[in-house]
Design a protein that fits this description.
Elements: E1 2-3, E2 7-11, E3 17-21, H1 22-29, H2 31-45, H3 47-52, H4 55-89, H5 96-106, H6 110-116, H7 119-153, H8 157-170, H9 174-186, H10 190-203, H11 207-223, H12 227-246, H13 252-268, H14 274-291, H15 297-316, H16 320-334, H17 341-357, H18 365-384, H19 386-406, H20 410-430, H21 432-454, H22 457-471, H23 479-496
Antiparallel strand pairs: 1-2, 2-3
Helix pairs in contact: 1-4, 2-4, 5-6, 7-8, 8-9, 9-10, 10-11, 11-12, 11-13, 12-13, 13-14, 13-15, 14-15, 15-16, 15-17, 16-17, 17-18, 17-19, 18-19, 19-20, 20-21, 21-22, 21-23, 22-23
Length: 497
């Protein structure tokens, strides 16, 4: 420690101490510079030697003297400053080698001080400690991510997002950002998904990961209806993949996925020729058919998705036969895939597309069976995740009920409506603000349908009263709620008359 303004005191562990003046410490440490200055001064004071020097040499020596004097002054200031810093940090200094080196340094033994430092050993120790801390941070971040997934399954979305964000605070790496991006994409918050995927892209060091991330960003820009940015990111994904493949790396599956997604972007852009989309779908299917592995579930999932997207393209061109063939081939593959929530949803969508293509068939059992099978899948999914599959489930019922009404199958129609209302009431009871208005509006439409097609006055009024009951629990200052409430009350009055 520094005793007053003048003395440095070194206290050993055994209690003995040694003290010396700061000036003496400085003198010892700056000894070599003092010798250089003394030598220069001696030359300049020696008249005989001085007379032999040229003016240039005299100027050179004077400049050198000034330089050495400045260096000495800077060294003295540095030593004073260093002593003060060491004193303020000494409670944190635990390494014996550093303390020994510091003592030798203060006594002017710079060579001994340098030899006493154990920098290589300390570097290894620090690296080991940093790895331990990093491992613990990874474990903590993974724990927050698992907590987020559990909360998500319990439909606690806000709490789940908070847990994901804590994972990023603990360890802001590619994995954490990608996981919260997946969470946002699942809940159709595509802009937040994009924001986090872009953060993952910036810090990703793996080219294969960057290919996957750029593809995801392009996909979610497409789902956000931002076709320009979707095209930009998907082209970037394809470019990255092609560069790697040119050097024996890359990912054929990833390339096929990007081509499929870019084709979907072009197919949905009414300003473009569909031939561009057709070419990309063909390229994607060619890669998949050449490289597909029967045991690779993900590859066959991509195969089915690409076939389905090409089927949609043909349906947009009113080429029903080609569209149906692609949908059926996609369905055959999906029926062989391992059971999962995603595969079930995509299977149900294929069935609805096939039902819609056959809605005017002479044999109405064909579309009806497609819609019934889709409804069965959505019934299973509703038990697992009612909030995210409800609207697709309702769409399947709507298509099925059109067939029942066309065929005057009112008992089947009523049965489907009762089941739909039951599921709808469950969602309203859980999240009235999110589902209330939408379901009240649906009940109003159903009531009108029942009255116009079935002429069942009492059942129509029953559905209107159910709609009214939901609307009366919603904020009355909402203009949409107010207008629908007025229409429902007017319709009830009209039917009662």
């Amino acid at each position: 420690n520094i005793d007053g303004n003048n003395d440095v005191v070194i206290i050993e562990k055994d209690g003995t101490s040694e003290s010396f003046s700061i000036a003496n410490a400085i003198k010892l440490i700056t000894e070599s510079k003092n010798r250089e200055i003394e030598l220069l001064e001696k030359i300049l004071r020696d008249k005989e030697k001085f007379q032999l020097l040229s003016e240039d040499k005299i100027d050179q020596l004077n400049n050198e003297l000034k330089k050495r004097t400045k260096e000495l002054s800077r060294a003295e200031g540095y030593v004073k400053q260093m002593l003060q810093k060491v004193e303020s940090r000494q409670e944190f200094l635990e390494d014996i080698s550093y303390k020994n080196a510091l003592e030798l340094f203060l006594k002017g033994n710079l060579v001994g001080a340098m030899e006493s430092l154990k920098i290589d050993e300390l570097e290894i120790e620090v690296e080991k400690t940093e790895n331990e801390v990093k491992s613990k941070k990874k474990n903590l971040a993974d724990s927050f991510i698992l907590k987020a997934e559990i909360l998500d399954l319990q439909n606690q979305q806000a709490e789940s997002e908070s847990a994901y964000k804590r994972a990023i605070e603990v360890l802001p790496d590619e994995y954490s950002y990608s996981r919260i991006a997946e969470h946002f994409s699942y809940h159709k918050n595509y802009l937040s998904a994009i924001e986090n995927y872009e953060a993952a892209y910036k810090i990703s060091s793996s080219e294969l990961s960057r290919i996957k991330i750029t593809n995801s960003i392009g996909k979610y820009y497409y789902l956000s209806e931002n076709l320009n940015d979707a095209e930009t990111w998907l082209l970037k994904s394809i470019e990255l993949n092609n560069k790697l493949m040119a050097h024996g790396g890359g990912n054929k599956k990833g390339l096929a996925m990007s081509l499929n997604n870019l084709a979907t972007v072009y197919a949905s852009d009414i300003t473009l020729e569909n031939s561009k989309a057709e070419r990309l779908f063909s390229d994607a299917l060619q890669i998949i058919r050449e490289d597909i592995l029967d045991s690779d579930n993900d590859y066959r999932d991509l195969y089915a998705a690409t076939l389905a997207n090409r089927g949609l393209l043909y349906s947009l061109k009113n080429q029903a036969t080609e569209s149906e063939n692609y949908f059926k081939e996609a369905l055959e593959i999906r029926d062989t895939l391992a059971k999962s929530k995603d595969n079930s949803i995509r299977t149900a969508r294929l069935l609805i597309n096939l039902g819609a293509l056959n809605q005017y068939a002479d044999n109405q059992d064909i579309p009806k069976n497609y819609f019934l099978r889709a409804k069965g899948i959505y019934n299973e999914l509703f038990n697992l995740d009612p909030f995210n599959v409800y609207h697709e489930y309702r769409f399947a019922i709507s298509n099925l009920n059109k067939i029942y009404l066309q065929n005057n199958s009112y008992d089947e129609y009523n049965s489907e409506i009762e089941e739909l209302v039951k599921k709808s009431n469950y969602l309203v009871s859980k999240e009235p603000k999110k589902f209330g208005f939408d379901i009240a509006q649906m009940l109003f439409v159903i009531a009108d349908e029942i009255f116009e097609r079935m002429k069942d006055l009492s059942l129509a009024i029953e559905k209107l009263n159910q709609s009214l009951d939901i609307l009366q629990k919603l904020p009355p200052n909402d203009l949409h709620v107010y207008n629908l409430l007025h229409k429902v009350k007017s319709k009830i009055t009209e039917l009662n008359k």
